[in-house]
Amino acid sequence: MPDKLSVIIATYNPDASRLRQTLEGLQQQSLSLAQWELIVVDNNSTQPLTIDLSWHPQAVIVHEARQGLTYARLKGFATAKNELIVLVDDDNVIDADYLHHVLEIFEKRTALGAIGGKSLPIFETEPPQWLKAFYGSLALRDLGDEAKIQAWENSYPQYAPIGAGMGIRKAALASYIKKAEDGQSMIADRSGSSLASGGDNDIVLEVLKSGWQVGYFPQLLLQHIIPQGRMQAGYLAKLENSTNNSWIKLLQSHGICPWPSIPAYTLPLRKAKAWLSLKAALSKSNYIKWRGYCGTMDALAVYKKY
């Protein structure tokens, strides 16, 4: 039977243990190896990527010199031979039936352009009690056991897929890829030590605006490995700040930001008031939330003379 799916792993200086778990999850897929190919995109790692993919007859490692997750994904899209694509991060362990379910969902629902499901944590160490408030920023989510399908409604859909484990119909990527090929401004995404994000959201919006539907399907289950370093207040504060800033810029770029711009000169006072109202000095959780607020305000600020 001919192959039907292309799995893309974009990676930069990956942790060997986590990447090994990701690949082991793929080796255990119930879908025959004859039905999917594996593309690993080495996004200019410090040392060239060396991993054993001999277990898969249709596996390839390709190199993308332009730094950033967006460029790595574009390289994967260009390399993919098949109509259906699944994005797997280098710290994801997908369920054994994941690829089978993706294929089944797309074959039954031809209007769907992108799909996703549950992303549950594997914590490498015991997480702090306050961490759950920031699951969304860590690409963790469980939206229940009922499938949800949404179309374009001039806003970002609640049940849109996240980048981890996203299944995409290649035809639905045409608008997103054309935007990149035409040299239009792309939403900044993870690059090196930067925690900027939004590339997967940009894909979702282009898919929706092209007339496709997106969906959440609970049978699409993956586990996201969360190391100790990502549970530290300093990291999460930077993550919340970058994520909120990127989110506003994404919505602005698509003309759907519900919040008005603010004059830049008001930033110090707004941040000072938020420091007090959020009681940022009293707990790590409050401080992280304050940093997220600052990221939002920075993105809304309009730098001009008044």
CATH architecture of the largest domain: Alpha-Beta Complex
The gyration radius over C-alpha positions equals 20 Å
The count of strands amounts to 11
Helix segment tally: 8
Instruction: Quote the average pLDDT.
Output: 93
CATH fold description of the largest domain? Spore Coat Polysaccharide Biosynthesis Protein SpsA, Chain A
Write the CATH homologous superfamily of the largest domain.
Answer: Spore Coat Polysaccharide Biosynthesis Protein SpsA, Chain A
> What is the helical fraction, as a range of percent?
25-40%
Oligomer: single chain
Which residues sit in consecutive blocks of at least 5 with pLDDT less than 50?
Answer: none
First-last Cα distance: 66 Å
Any idea how many domains? 2
| Elements, N to C (H/E) | EHEEHEEHEEEHHEHEHHE
Q: How does the major sheet shape up?
A: 9 strands, mixed
Name the overall outline.
globular
CATH class of the largest domain: Alpha Beta
Domain Glycosyltransferase 2-like: 6-133
InterPro entries: Glyco_trans_2-like (IPR001173), Glycosyltransf_2 (IPR050834), Nucleotide-diphossugar_trans (IPR029044)
Protein name: Glycosyltransferase 2-like domain-containing protein
Pfam families: Glycos_transf_2 (PF00535)
